[in-house]
Specification:
mainly alpha; single chain; about 450 residues; about 80% helix; 19 helices
Length: about 450
């Protein structure tokens, strides 16, 4: 896993560098209005594409890795096909609605003249970006985690950097390139999945197959994880969207740059979780508690060392990082420091939401994320109208800290044989919040989530 994490971090380093260069060039070359339009519409696409995935990406990682661990490759292939079809249908419908409603959003939500054509172009990116993420999740389940992370996270900023180098200077054209990057990334994923088709056949013996308990359906696993995905992208992007209702394009651009800089720590933590996810899914399906505990311990140690140190650097260098991006962006230094504190605490408890998702405790994760969303909504609506950037930073940080802490507590309670360390609640309180502690190994027939949900 450490070797895989090293390779993944190289890919994520490429992603971090390309995204930082992209945000830097957009802020420098596009001007306040066009850069504000671009960051706002990029956030809009990320939110809608996350909603349309319905949690199928995380569910596919669990199902594909778990089915391959017991030799049920045909079932894994069936799940990939169903996930792609379901995501494509919903994404297409949402993209059409977003395109038709661009004028309404400009006039009645964001109050920014000239935003409508940019939003219309952004709608074209919803389907390819959502489909790209689902296909990359299938690759992760197949064990192709490095190339999957490259195609999902590093491909599109590199693609957009090439467009800027070619002379693109408008948000509309850059978002058209964002859509093209999603299409090309999806095609690469399909080619790679086709090359793995020899693994998508049953290899379990009859005797082994008779002892395998079926996983719940893909949609059953995906339903609570859909809420989780929506809440996570909302916590990351809702403060930006609400800030867009009360501040001008220049302030949105400054906060968006700070927000995206600090999310580079989150990117590293997500990368580590992605490397661990198929291993966690396979180990849990085989009930190998010692291996699961080792994976979890390694995941948390890597997250604390790499993500935690990155967050500390951002706290110390906040004004200099923003000044490097461009003159005037230093106004977001305090917001960057606040959000970096939240990411530091998140790094200390890396990947516990991944452990819950890959072990079938999606409903507990859903409950935690709904609490996070409520906190984010309350803090955003209360603080952003009066404190603007500082309020948005607090609104992004508080739910993050609550979520990572609660996930660690839930993992320690529900998977006591696999939890390395982390904050714990008294047993009666844990029982009330997270349900009864399993006496034996969790069942994989769909009743586990009901019992512990």
């Amino acid at each position: 896993m450490i070797r895989g994490a090293g390779a993944a971090l190289l890919v994520r380093g490429l992603e971090v560098g390309s995204k930082f260069a992209l945000y830097f060039l957009v802020a420098r070359l596009f001007g306040g209005e066009q850069s504000g339009f671009f960051f706002l519409c990029l956030t809009w696409v990320h939110v809608l594409s996350t909603i349309t995935r319905l949690g199928l990406d995380r569910a596919l990682i669990r199902h594909v890795s778990a089915e391959l661990a017991v030799g049920c490759g045909t079932t894994a292939a069936h799940n990939i096909r169903n996930g792609v079809i379901g995501c494509s249908i919903l994404s297409l419908g949402v993209a059409i609605l977003s395109w038709l409603g661009a004028d309404i959003l400009e006039a009645h939500v964001f109050f920014m003249p000239g935003l409508s054509p940019v939003l219309g172009m952004a709608a074209l990116a919803i389907l390819p970006q959502a489909l790209n993420v689902v296909l990359c999740a299938a690759l992760v389940g197949l064990g192709r985690t490095i190339i999957a992370q490259f195609l999902q996270n590093a491909w599109w900023p590199l693609f957009l950097l090439c467009l800027i180098a070619a002379g693109t200077r408008s948000a509309t054209s850059l978002l058209a390139g964002f859509a093209a990057a999603g299409v090309s990334g999806s095609l690469f994923c399909l080619i790679l999945i086709a090359r793995e088709r020899h693994r998508l056949h049953n290899t379990a013996t009859r005797a082994t197959a008779d002892t395998i308990t079926a996983l719940p359906s893909l949609l059953t696993t995906a339903r609570p994880l859909a809420v989780v995905e929506i809440v996570q992208v909302s916590i990351a992007n809702l403060p930006v969207l609400i800030l867009g209702m009360f501040a001008g394009p220049s302030i949105i651009a400054a906060f968006s740059v700070a927000n995206r800089i600090v999310q580079l720590v989150w990117v590293v933590l997500i990368s580590l979780g992605t490397i661990a996810a198929p291993r966690i899914g396979g180990a849990h399906r085989l009930q190998d508690h010692m291996r699961l505990k080792t994976i979890n311990r390694t995941l948390q140690a890597l997250g604390a060392a790499i993500g935690g140190s990155g967050a500390v650097l951002m706290m110390v260098l906040a004004p200099y990082l923003l000044h490097f991006v461009g003159s005037g962006y230093e106004i977001a230094a305090s917001a960057l420091i606040i959000m970096a504190i939240g990411q530091f605490l998140n790094a200390l408890l890396t990947g516990q939401d991944v452990v819950l998702a890959m072990s079938g405790h999606g409903r507990i994760l859903q409950r935690i994320n709904l609490i996070q969303f409520a906190i984010c909504l309350i803090v955003s609506s209360t603080l952003i109208p009066h404190m603007q950037m500082i309020g948005a930073a607090i609104a992004a940080t508080v739910p993050l800290v609550v979520g990572c802490t609660a996930s660690a507590m839930a993992a320690a309670w529900l998977l006591p044989k696999s939890a390395p360390y982390g904050p714990r609640l008294p047993d009666p309180l844990s029982h009330r919040l997270f349900g009864p502690q399993p006496v034996s190994h969790p069942q994989e027939n769909g009743t586990d989530e009901e019992d512990h949900g």
